[in-house]
Design a protein that fits this description.
This protein is of the alpha/beta class. The protein is 30% helix and 22% strand. It has a five-stranded parallel beta sheet, with helices on both faces. Strands 6-7-10-8-9 form a five-stranded mixed beta sheet. The chain is elongated. The N and C termini lie far apart (54 Å). Keywords: Cobalamin biosynthesis, Methyltransferase, S-adenosyl-L-methionine, Transferase.
Length: 227
């Protein structure tokens, strides 16, 4: 029996209309659709999941690396069992699978076990945020740095001579906002971009320090520059 293939499918940041044609095709053709904890990715692709076998995969946000590795191993083993049966599996992930996606931990494990796994790119959240704000991320020779807001060396990143994207700001938002204000940087933020509960903050002063996990901050260096 021919082994199945695993596809890590980026479903975009939240708006179902931003799903790519390829993502939709892969989901429709898949025998099984694997979904991580939470309903966000599943909700985005809901129109294409009717009648599909759904495989829930526990992908918790944990600091315990041993337990985290165990969860990734378990997900990979369950998926490999399906691939061994010749089934095609589409694993849904928010945004693009190559950008801060926990799916990649499973992807590497499946490849290491000798099975085929492919990535299906999706629209990254920061690109959707820039579009929502109606401006570019970078122009001309401007450099761009993409950083998780929880990164322990985020302060050093602020000294980077260029524009920055801080992803998944959430609990770090209040501290980040204060640091940006002290530096005189300008910033805008979109929370839950493309979702029903989306919120747009067009200045640093407007930004809610209690914004949720799916918050993306765009920063331009220098107080006179505007996003």
């Amino acid at each position: 029996m021919k082994q199945g293939v695993l596809y890590g499918v980026g479903v975009g940041p939240g708006d179902p209309e931003l799903m790519t044609v390829k993502a939709v095709r892969i989901i429709r053709e898949a025998d099984v659709v694997a979904v991580p904890d939470g309903q966000t990715a599943q909700n985005i692709a809901a129109d294409y999941l009717e009648g599909k076998e759904i495989l829930p995969c526990s992908m918790p946000m944990l600091r315990d690396k041993a337990l985290l590795a165990q969860k990734h191993d378990e997900a990979a083993e369950r998926i490999c069992a399906l691939l061994e049966q010749g089934k095609t599996v589409a694993f849904l992930t928010l945004g693009d699978p190559s950008v801060y996606s926990t799916y990649m931990y499973v992807h590497r494990r499946v490849l290491a076990r000798g099975y085929e796994a492919q990535l299906v790119p999706g629209v990254p959240s920061f690109c959707a945020v820039a579009a929502r704000l109606g401006d570019s991320l970078c122009e001309g020779a401007e450099p761009l740095m993409i950083v998780p807001a929880s990164y322990r060396n985020a302060d050093a990143c602020l000294d980077f001579p260029g524009n920055k994207v801080f992803m998944k700001a959430g609990r770090s938002m209040g501290d980040l906002r204060d640091k940006l204000r002290a530096r005189g940087d300008s910033a805008q933020m979109v929370e839950n971009c493309g979702m029903q509960n989306e919120r747009v903050f067009r200045s640093l002063d407007e930004i809610d320090p209690d914004a949720g996990y799916f918050s993306v901050v765009l920063v331009r260096h220098g107080k006179d520059k505007q996003i």
